[in-house]
# Entry
Amino acid sequence: MEFNQNENTEAFSKSDTAESISETAAENISENIPSEGLYIADGGNDAQALPKAPDMMVRYKTDCFKLGFYLTLLLLLRIIAQGISPVVSRVIYSLTSNIDVIYALSLSYSALFLQIIPSILGAVILKYSLKNIAGGFHVPKNSKRAFANFPAIYGAGMTINLITMGIIMLLTGGGNINDSINSLGLAPPSILSSFTLFIMLVVIAPLFEEFVFRGAVMNLLKPYGSGMAVFVSAFCFGIFHGNFQQFFYAFALGILLGYISYATDSMFCNTVLHAMFNSISGIIMIFVSTDAVRKKSMDQSAVLTDGEQLILTFYAIFMIIVLLTALIGFLTMIKKLSKIKRYKLPKMWGEVSNKKKIAILILTLPVLLSILLMTDVMGENYIADLIAKAVG
# Structure
């Protein structure tokens, strides 16, 4: 989850990958950039004049408070979901013994707390109406050029993910830092459950998460600097994943998807790209759930049937394609990095430096609270454990 007008965005300069992601998209979007002192509200096409600096500062502080309050609620939802998950699991197991139904209900529980409720809260608190689902997802003219960046996006995301995994393994002696998603019991137990997870990853998650982060959060911050909006929304997207291993690549992915959303003036391309990114993980999940892959992963000398050998062959071919895509994408991204400075997101509110904007945002009380919750969620999960003990 990228121009002719300059914006000295210190915050965004740290994530300049986003600005280079699509040269051609940047050329197309320059025609739709609002003039300085204007911004596009609610993903629509009607430009609204910005208030004067003093009024703008009051408005900015108010929006920082809203964002902090929203982030706090998101993290509390995750903590509550994890804390009461043992009770929910017992209830689900009491209703049915079918492993695939149990898995589907567990996924629905996860989607409720991690996608559906956050989207509703985002629409209400950040005033990003649900009508934007229809209006914001139009197909832009430069969609083909945006989609052409998928290898670069995937290569960048996977490279950062592999580096992060390697560092974590070194620091933990081969172990893993808390993974709150796995703690909700989402590993697929069968092929049917893998297809259920595939739908969750490729349809539900991209739609709701893009609505929240590239929609509600970015829309709230765009009047104060489009670069800042992309950077902060990407950071929130990283926090949303709830663990250190996923934070860094989710943050990078959020920057790239945020730029695509801005460059195309739509959420269509970034949502589809998000789905494409997730679909690779979903397909791997389906392969891993087959008897062929399970047998070989447990015993390299295991004898496979002709059908199982065919599945294993397809899996090997698919993984080679994935690795080649990641490698080509990584090299493409390096090439694009050399042209970063040619593309800049437009200035919208330049009276206040981005350092001051970020400082005001961080020192807002709800944001400070969300930072404290974030350290617990991405660390030891003390609060979730206390809730789990309390509910028994």
User: Anything to note?
Assistant: The longest strand covers residues 38-40.
